[in-house]
């Protein structure tokens, strides 16, 4: 899952970048509001973590412009000012959650996972398709009761397909949601990850189905092959 982190405190940004990357997210980091507004015009993210006190363009204006473009990406606001008035203002402007500094990294990661899950219409941590289950808290996939061994990239692809809830997603959209700005990703690379996942799912009753012109979806299969 690809996240945009907007934080002008370089030490904090580096700490968050490291923690979120270790948690399995692809993270693009911007350090001022102008750059954040620019990438939000051109890139697709699963979530935005947005500081309010930013140079060039403050977080309020970044949020206002984002929602004015009718972009529904979840936004988690970070701020050193945790007043009730600020929280109400942020939520009224279209923010989805609010975290006051200082905060615990474990709580931040939990809120990020919950916001992404809810943005795909899932209220619960545990998701399932046939014999394939995913625990959003532990971030573990199990197939027929056995934990799946996945690389970080395979995990990200399968997680996104699971969150789609049976809806197809194109290779290009998958690539955009998986690879950060500083990474080289392509539709062809995505085919490789999908191929590897199909092999790992082959002994179960779930597969990755290709729909011509639409992309991939995760679905139950009759014979255990996708």
Calculate Rg over CA atoms.
Answer: 18 Å
Percentage of helical residues? 40-55%
User: Which residue ranges are poorly predicted, with pLDDT under 50 across at least 5 consecutive positions?
Assistant: none
3D shape: elongated
Strand content: 15-25%
Order of adjacent strands in the largest pleated sheet: 2-1-3-4-5
Structure, explained:
The protein is of the alpha/beta class and 226 residues long. The protein folds into 2 domains: 2-119, Response regulator (Rossmann fold); 126-220, Arc Repressor Mutant, subunit A (Orthogonal Bundle). It has helices at 10-22, 33-42, 59-68, 84-92, 105-119, 152-163, 171-178, 187-201, and strands at residues 2-6, 26-30, 47-51, 75-79, 97-100, 126-129, 132-135, 140-143, 146-147, 206-211, 215-220. It is elongated. The mean pLDDT is 88.
What attributes does this structure have?
22% strand; alpha/beta; 5-stranded parallel sheet; single chain; 2 domains; 4-stranded antiparallel sheet; 226 residues; Rossmann fold; phosphoprotein; Arc Repressor Mutant, subunit A; 41% helix
Topology readout:
Elements: E1 2-6, H1 10-22, E2 26-30, H2 33-42, E3 47-51, H3 59-68, E4 75-79, H4 84-92, E5 97-100, H5 105-119, E6 126-129, E7 132-135, E8 140-143, E9 146-147, H6 152-163, H7 171-178, H8 187-201, E10 206-211, E11 215-220
Parallel strand pairs: 1-2, 1-3, 3-4, 4-5
Antiparallel strand pairs: 6-7, 7-8, 8-9, 10-11
């Amino acid at each position: 899952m690809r996240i945009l982190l907007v934080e002008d405190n370089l030490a904090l940004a580096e700490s968050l970048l490291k923690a979120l990357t270790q948690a399995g997210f692809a993270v693009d980091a911007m350090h001022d509001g102008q750059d954040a507004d620019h990438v939000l015009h051109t890139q697709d993210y699963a979530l935005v973590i947005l500081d309010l006190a930013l140079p060039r363009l403050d977080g309020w204006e970044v949020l206002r412009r984002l929602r004015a473009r009718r972009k529904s990406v979840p936004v988690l606001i970070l701020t050193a000012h945790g007043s009730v008035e600020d929280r109400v203002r942020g939520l009224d402007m279209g923010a989805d959650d609010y975290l006051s500094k200082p905060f615990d990294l474990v709580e931040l990661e939990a809120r990020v996972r919950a916001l992404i899950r809810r943005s795909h219409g899932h209220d619960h941590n545990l998701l399932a398709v046939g014999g394939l289950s995913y625990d959003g808290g532990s971030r573990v996939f199990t197939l027929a009761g056995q934990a799946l061994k996945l690389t970080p990239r395979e995990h990200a692809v399968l997680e996104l397909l699971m969150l789609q809830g049976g809806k197809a997603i194109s290779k290009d959209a998958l690539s955009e949601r998986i690879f950060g700005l500083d990474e080289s990703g392509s539709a062809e690379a995505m085919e490789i990850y999908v191929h590897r996942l199909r092999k790992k799912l082959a002994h179960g009753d779930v597969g990755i189905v290709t729909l011509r012109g639409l992309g991939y979806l995760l679905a139950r299969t009759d014979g255990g092959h996708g």
